[in-house]
Structure prediction request, 291 residues.
Amino acid sequence: MMRYKWYVPYLFIFLALIGLFVFRLGPIVLALIMGFTDWSPFGSPEWVGIENYIDLFTSPTFWTIFKNTIIFSAVFVPTIVVFSLLLAVLLNKGLKGTTIFRVMFFAPVITSTVAIGIVWQWIFSTDIGFINFTLRTLGIDDPPSWLSDGRYSLFVVAFVYAWKRVGYYMIIYLAGLQDIPRNLIEAARVDGATKFTEFKYITLPLITPTMFFVLIMSTIDSFKSFEIVYTMTKGGPGVASTTLSYYVYQNAFELFQMGTASSIAMVLLAIVATITYINFKYKSKWVQYRY
Prediction:
């Protein structure tokens, strides 16, 4: 009979733990330390304490970009939560062609973000874009400059990113919908419940755990969006569509201010952690785990 050795289970997860510490936790700790330094890749780091954070919080540019990030998230997250649920409900009906539509909606998820950004950049182009061509055809002589006008660029980028990601969250919702016991739906129909009543009192409450997951993940998704901003607007015009994640890139790889970039990354981490904590704190008020 083999004797149990306490360290055996840890041997099975040893490689995974190495990856976690080296490629996940390690860079976070390093970025935290670098946030208190003034460091360029071409020189040695110099300890400056909280100077980077003071410069950030007293910079009007930072607060403009912070506001942009909040607006981006405020557009992206509700769009994802609502529209991915609506698509999942429609696809869950089991109508003909459901598989084809499932593939169509999920295709953008696995398509390169850069490729999607380039295509949508052409669609929203001021002079040769499909949207402005259509608007001119309808008699609008001076259509908006979607990507070069600060009033529209951030919303356009948020819309395109939501379009790309909606299929992913649709699949998650679809899994949640298919997990709802059929006997509850059938009992409601026997009692004469309408489609709306069935959705309101059965489907929606029982889908709240999935909705909570989608809310958390889409919020994180919105705050770490980078490729779509880089591809479509590069944060412009000015900083009108610059988000915090793109601001980290600018400071790190364009201005080579690694300390400042790290401090921005830590602020971004703190914001996401705070929002996630608040969501978990109040989830018991609306998330239902029991049938």
Summary: Residues 60-91 form the longest helix (32 residues). DSSP finds 14 helices and two strands in the chain. The two ends are 45 Å apart (CA to CA). The beta strands are 37-38, 46-47.
